[in-house]
Amino acid sequence: MAFTEKQEALVKESWELLKPNIPEMSLRFFTLILEIAPAAKRMFSFLRDSEEIPQNNPKLKAHAVKVFKMTCEAAIQLREKGEVVVADTTLKYLGSVHLKNGVIGPHFEVVKEALLRTIKEAIGEEKCSDEMSSAWGEAYDQLAAAIKAEMKEEV
Ligand code: HEM
User: Fold this and answer.
1) Gap from CA of 14 to ligand 1 centroid (Å)
2) In angstroms, rounded to a whole number, what is the distance separating the alpha carbons of residues 70 and 63?
3) pLDDT digits (tens, 9 = 90+) for 83-103
4) How far apart are the C-alpha atoms of 114 and 116, rounded to whole Å?
5) Which CATH number belongs to the domain containing residue 56 in this structure?
6) What range does the domain containing 147 cover?
7) For ligand 1, is residue 144 a contact (CB within 6 Å)?
8) Which of 1, 39, 84, 126 has the most CB atoms around its CB within 10 Å?
9) According to DSSP H, which parts of the chain are helical?
10) Is 143 in the pocket of ligand 1 (CB under 6 A)?
11) How many domains does the chain have?
12) Do residues 119 and 14 touch, judged by C-beta distance below 8 A?
């Protein structure tokens, strides 16, 4: 089904609400990732060597922001063009960085779950409608599919 203007607006609106609280949002996102999949700790350079999740780590923030921002961009592209368009070089880089760090297909589901829960908690249970969650979910799935396809090509 086509990605609608309404879905794009829901994603953009909620990202605007999350943006002012990047440090908290990033921390919560990674806390949820590790709650769902404790073994993921080993993959991230900034988590591997510390007992606790670091409070103000630029790399942790960068990964969280990338996932949220690129999903938001994917939503815009899906509405405008009907598909996710990531520059070839970016996609190749994303494919190789994830392969190199031991990321596999099911990890993308873990991150999706953490992303949706982070949004729900930040926006509030009532304000975050099912429609809003599924718009994020759809955009994320399409972006993840593009990255996963690149990871397969490299093997
Ligand atoms: C690195 C984006 C999903 C684990 C990166 C980088 C980007 C990125 C841009 C490079 C950061 C840099 O070079 O500084 C994304 C996007 C995702 C996604 C847009 C989903 C749509 C995942 C998933 C996992 C994961 C599902 C595994 C749970 C990693 C790891 C690194 C990385 C371990 C290396 C970071 C480090 O240790 O410094 N990702 N990622 N990513 N990503 Fe992802």
Assistant:
1) 22
2) 10
3) 999 999 999 999 999 999 999
4) 6
5) 1.10.490.10
6) 5-154
7) yes
8) 84
9) 5-18, 22-36, 45-48, 58-81, 88-100, 105-123, 130-154
10) yes
11) 1
12) yes
Distances (CA, A) of 8 to 40, 52, 143, 146: 30, 36, 14, 19
Q: Count CB neighbours of 76 within 10 A.
A: 15
Residue with tokens 């900034």: 46
Contact predicate 145/105, CB 8 Å: no
Query: Ligand 1 atom closest to Cα of 101?
Result: 33
ipTM above 0.90, yes or no: yes
Q: Rounded CA gap, 11 and 77, in Å?
A: 12
- Mean local confidence (pLDDT), 127-149: 97
pTM, two decimal places: 0.96
Whole-number Å distance between alpha carbons of 9 and 11: 5
Look at the alpha carbons of 43, 44, 45, 51 in this order and tell me if their dihedral is positive or negative: negative
Q: Is 98 in the pocket of ligand 1 (CB under 6 A)?
A: yes
Q: Which residues contact 95 (CB under 8 A, 6 or more apart)?
A: 147, 150, 151, 153, 154
Distance of alpha carbon 94 from alpha carbon 86, whole angstroms = 10
- 101 C-beta closer than 6 A to ligand 1: yes
